[in-house]
Design goal:
The chain has about 240 residues and is an alpha/beta fold. It is built from six helices and eight strands, in the order βαβαβαβαβαβαββ.
Length: about 240
């Protein structure tokens, strides 16, 4: 019996690491639904991959719009019957190198709304059906800056949002431990050459995406509740 084709949702998939994750998953024969807020750039990304011989679906989704996230989840489940993989990649970094003593709290709220609440919205929309089916893979794109063990100063908004994302990973993994084939993990891509990382970054998007794709395709019995870089545990 032929295994049913898996379906993945990748947020913030119009460029950078998100686009590369979508590319690599599509290259593995996985049906990919790539999402972002801007239809024009999303369609352009879709055409880029189509020119490479890869097929994927593009849908407009703002992760901070809870109703929109829920509606997309319902639509995809009706269309495909299942969503097997969720990659929470959408994120922003607004505070640069401002001191925590000078940071506008509103900027922290904006960052948390996308980087943490956005991922929470997506998990609440897609994970219940994974639990019901008994299978799912969730990958949260975190950062070295989300590690309390390695925490230093500045960039408080970004650091706090990624630390919260790691907490979401741990909480959900523990809550779903009675459904052992729903695996939820965080990863940090490292300093990657993207519009966020800048041209002087030391890692390619291919290197940045690799661990996310590995976690998205873990076999039964794989880790859950972990934080990884380069396919190895990274300190929380």
């Amino acid at each position: 019996m032929t295994e049913k084709k898996k379906t993945a949702v990748v947020t913030g998939a119009n460029r950078g690491i998100g686009l590369e994750i979508a590319r690599q998953l599509a290259g593995l024969g996985i049906r990919v639904c790539a999402t972002c807020r801007d239809e024009t750039v999303g369609k352009a990304a879709q055409q880029t991959l189509k020119a490479e011989g890869l097929e994927l679906e593009f849908r407009v989704m703002d992760v901070t719009n809870r109703a929109g996230v829920m509606a997309l989840a319902a639509d995809l489940l009706e269309q495909h019957g299942q969503v097997d993989i969720l990659v929470n990649n959408a994120g922003i970094a607004l505070d640069k190198w401002r001191s925590a003593l000078e940071l506008d709290p509103q900027l922290i709220r904006q960052t948390m709304e996308v980087n943490f609440i956005g991922a929470l919205n997506c998990c609440q929309a897609f994970v219940p059906a994974m639990r019901e089916r008994g299978y799912g893979r969730v990958v949260n794109l975190s950062s070295q800056m989300g590690s309390l063990e390695k925490m230093t100063g500045f960039l408080l908004a970004y650091r706090a949002s990624k630390t919260a994302l790691n907490a979401l990973t741990r909480c959900l993994a523990d809550e779903l431990k009675e459904t052992p084939d729903v695996l939820i993990n965080s990863m940090c891509p490292g300093w990657v050459r993207t519009s966020l990382g800048g041209e002087n970054a030391i890692r390619s998007v291919e290197e940045g995406a690799d661990t996310a794709v590995w976690l998205a395709t873990l076999p039964t019995g794989g880790p859950s509740g972990g934080f990884f870089q380069d396919r190895k545990p990274f300190p929380f």
